[in-house]
């Protein structure tokens, strides 16, 4: 197992890819971020079987020609160049290789809640705190966040 998995924050895992469009999306995301070469994804071989580190089913495999070949290692990487085929295809590699990786955490899963530190405001200036349920972990930009402010009747809401 690669050490990269242990660095995924808030209960996240290395990304699991369940379609060619998933592979294309995450390859493009990495390339846009300036990453090239290869990148760890959440696949691994354990006891001779392929599995995702998040425990999800391996319903789509996108191996490059000639792979998997466990002689190269037990962890799975995604190609960001055409060295062994197409961008987005997978090869396997030794888990000890140090390289970039992509973590994923379902935005619906609430991690531990931590309130942001409030500034020292006088009591008359502070009505309440508004915070994200997953602060300081961010949620990807494609998701809609909705805040509902409630207060007791006759009280003032400060924003």
TrEMBL record:
<dbReference type="InterPro" id="IPR001304">
    <property type="entry name" value="C-type_lectin-like"/>
</dbReference>
<dbReference type="InterPro" id="IPR016187">
    <property type="entry name" value="CTDL_fold"/>
</dbReference>
<dbReference type="InterPro" id="IPR016186">
    <property type="entry name" value="C-type_lectin-like/link_sf"/>
</dbReference>
<keyword id="KW-1015">Disulfide bond</keyword>
<feature type="domain" description="C-type lectin">
    <location>
        <begin position="1"/>
        <end position="104"/>
    </location>
</feature>
<protein>
    <recommendedName>
        <fullName>C-type lectin domain-containing protein</fullName>
    </recommendedName>
</protein>
<dbReference type="InterPro" id="IPR050976">
    <property type="entry name" value="Snaclec"/>
</dbReference>
<dbReference type="InterPro" id="IPR035914">
    <property type="entry name" value="Sperma_CUB_dom_sf"/>
</dbReference>
<dbReference type="Pfam" id="PF00059">
    <property type="entry name" value="Lectin_C"/>
</dbReference>
